[in-house]
Design goal:
The complex is a heterodimer.
Chain A (H helix, E strand, L loop, with lengths): L3 H44 L14 H11 E7 L4 E2 L1 H6 L12 H4 L8 E8 L4 E10 L4 E8 L6 E8 L9 H4 L1 H5 L17 E3 L9 E3 L5 H14 L4 H9 L1
Parallel strand pairs in A: 7-8
Antiparallel strand pairs in A: 1-2, 1-3, 3-4, 4-5, 5-6
Helix pairs in contact in A: 1-2
Chain B lengths: L1 H7 L12 H8 L15 H6 L4 H24 L9 H23 L1 H12 L5 H9 L6 H31 L1 E2 L2 E2 L1 E2 L6 E2 L18 H18 L2 H5 L1
Parallel strand pairs in B: 3-4
Antiparallel strand pairs in B: 1-2
The chains are: A alpha+beta, B mainly alpha.
Amino acid sequence: MHSTSYVVKFILIVSTVVALVLASMATLLKPIHDRNEAIANKRSILFAVNDFLETPVRQMSDDEVLEIFESQIEQIVVDVNGNVLSKEEVQERGYPGGMAEHVNLGRERRKPESERIFPVFKFQTSDQVLTVVSVRGNGLWDEIWANVALMPDLNTIAGVAFGHRAETPGLGAEINDNPRFAKQFQGTRLFDEEGNFKSVTVVKGRATDEYHEVDGVTGATVTNDGVTEMFDRGLRYYFDFFETVKVQ
Amino acid sequence: MADTKILDKPQIQENKPLFGKRERRLITDPINDNNPITVQVLGICSALAITTQVSPAVVMTLAVIFVMGFANLFTSLLRHSIPKQVRMIVMLIIIAFLVTVVELSLKAINYPIYQELSVFIGLIITNCIIMGRLEAFAMADKPWPSFLDGVGNAMGYGAILIIVAFFRELFGSGSLMGWELFGPGEQFMLNTDAHWWLSWYMPNNLMVLSASALFVIGILIWVHRAWNRKLIDVS
């Protein structure tokens, strides 16, 4: 048996050594971690316009992702009333980067609706400009989100990329893992012929309305309903911004 | 004086081979005769969680080999100075330290795999096999054999992990290491819908759920025992 003072000293020394090594490692790797996180975030935005890219996002190198973001994407941040915010205004809201890619919708969701800000990405292809907007909602276990690319008419969906934090693999996680789910959204429309917002609904069984319905994932009712709700609510925040664009 | 000095001299130790018979057994034993999963039935929790696809299982195996080898090594080096009253806490500090090293490095080296595995890398800390080997082996043996024992057990664990992941990914998603092999749909190399005699085929969704890992492990234990006669008397 060791004395109590020996035990205390031993634990103190071990903890200090471990803490020092881990702290210095975390500090040294921080720039690389930040870079990786930023690139992963950029990739998730590009996924929404995957079909309009020359090489699919998965096969792109990190430098190619940065290059496309530099040359083909314009970032805008808007508030609920459709006003475009300046970089300084975004920084005041707690995002030191000040760009649309830095806006964290998960954090925005905790603010009152009138104070939230939203990211918009304008993607310039060879002949048209696609608008990518972000929506966020709740799945079964935790948050789910999507980047939605819209055609220049701001009505037809050009592509969707889903993400989730903790949906069940094989069930709810299929929204992200199974490319066929997101593929169904291509060509669906936000507004009906009279111009009323109808959104896109995830239905059980076969979708009958080709413009406003898609097939749900079997066995993932709560996630499916979460996607429906997320689209219905999340896209509304952008309506005022869409109006200002249409007027121009 | 000169005489006593000679007498005090410790006996010259025979040079032990780096990979002698005992050392080799330390590696091979846990892979077959004393496998942590199929014989000792430890570490089942993580075997359920990360075996839906082969590539995360491979990364998990590498991470566990690293953590287990070095946790055994460090514990063995400190075995005489670790106070017995708090040895579990000290082991936990060592394991948590190594797991954090793995997590920080993976986040820097391969971010997509880090995102896929993030929760489970942290859960290596709770892997009962590691704590078991530290208590049973490293606290009582020299550093080099301890290191080999850790690596051997991690390889035994990883072998089962990869076998289970192979069957679950193949029959659950029709793919291996992300290569789409067979299933209904154009993205698969063998599109079962295109051949009338295969059009009945559907990927088995049950294989993707955790419960199927238990079925696969159960069958593996059965096969292992039927094949390795030594195990029949043990239980």
